[in-house]
Structure formats: C-alpha cells, structure tokens
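[[Sequence with tokens]]
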Amino acid sequence: MEFITKAKVRIHYEVLGQGRPLVFFHGNGEDHHIFEETARLLAEEYTVYLPDSRCHGESERTETVGYREIAADFLSLIQGLHLEKPVLCGFSDGGIVALLIAIAKPALPSALIVCGANSTPGGLKRRFRAFFRLQWKLTKNPLLGMMLKEPRISPAALAKIQAPTLVLAGSRDIIRQSHTEKLAAAIPGSRLGILFGETHASYVVHTEKLYGLLKNFLDELSALDNPEA
C-alpha cells in the first residue's frame, strides 16, 4: 500500500510486477480492485500501477471533484514516481481521465487504451443520462453531478493525442456507439474495437477478458517497434 501527496491531495495506489510501467484508471464509484484479474496477468511483463481516484477507495475525500482535477492528480502521481513512457489504460471515467492526460502531455504515454469513455455528457445513452440525473436530484452526489456536466473534450483536443490508441466499447455499452466511433475517429491513427455482446463493464471489471485485448494490442506495438525481434 502506497500513498503520494501532491497539491494537498493524498492518492492511494498499489504496485505489482516488474517491467515497463502500465497505469490503470478506474471508473466512477469504483476503486483499483476492479482491475485485479487483468493486472495480475500483466504483472508478468509490466510494472502495474493501480491508483484510486480522489473521493474513491483509500484516496482522500475532497470538497470538489472533476475529471480535470483527477487527471491532474494522476499526472502528479506519474511524474512523482518518475514513470517513463507509461502505458495508460482507463475505464469509463478513468478512460476520460486517460484522454485528458494524453491531451495535456502528448509525449508522455507510450500507448493509450480507453474503455467505454465519452468525450461529452451527450455520449451517454439518453436513458442512462435520465437515470443519473434522477439519482443526482435525490442524492446531490458530486460524482453524479460530474458525469452530467462533464467532460467537454473537443475533436480538436483529441487530435492532439500522439500515442498509439485503442478505443474499446461494448456493443451493449451505456455509451452510444456512434459517439465511440466519432471519438476514435478524432484520435489520429487510433484503433476501434466494438466488442459484441459486452456491456459497459463486462469485459473490464473483475475479469481476465481485458488482458487478452491489451496484450494483443501491446504485443503488436512491440513488434512494430522491434521488427527484427
């Protein structure tokens, strides 16, 4: 168990394995444990970092929370740990955060994997937006409010991403498929995978399915970097 404090926000993270750095970002209302099955397998080749977002898991609860604040926390974590060219993998809200980091620091990640992310609130299917809006009215949970107001990532911002990128979503995702397709199209050279029969979380949360998808993508990138290997 490790903690890092930057800008007065205490961020908890776990580390396992050895090799190239790979950082996972979880979704709204979750913590780093959702990636345990995939992380355990990847730890044979990578040093896997599993942080908790502010207001999640064992990280600090703050009065304010937003995607850009979370991205700044995680960027401070990456820089504070002196991680060189890490692979970034984010799910749902964590995917939004990964996009924001790759936009802010295009040269930082060696690769980017984004699962079930949206670049605007309108990327959510209408019935899910309505459900989250009702829940927010009942609870005033700032994490729900964040989802209804943010993110606001333009195609021009997505075009700044330089890292090889894999964009994933389930065919039964809470994100509109047309939105995922437009998001992927805005990222130069990105690959898009719509996973038949999968929901928003079924291929990510507490499953080894994500391992195969990441491993294939990262192995292909390694082969391109080392054609004679």
About this structure: The helical segments are 36-42, 67-80, 93-104, 126-139, 142-149, 155-158, 177-186, 209-225.
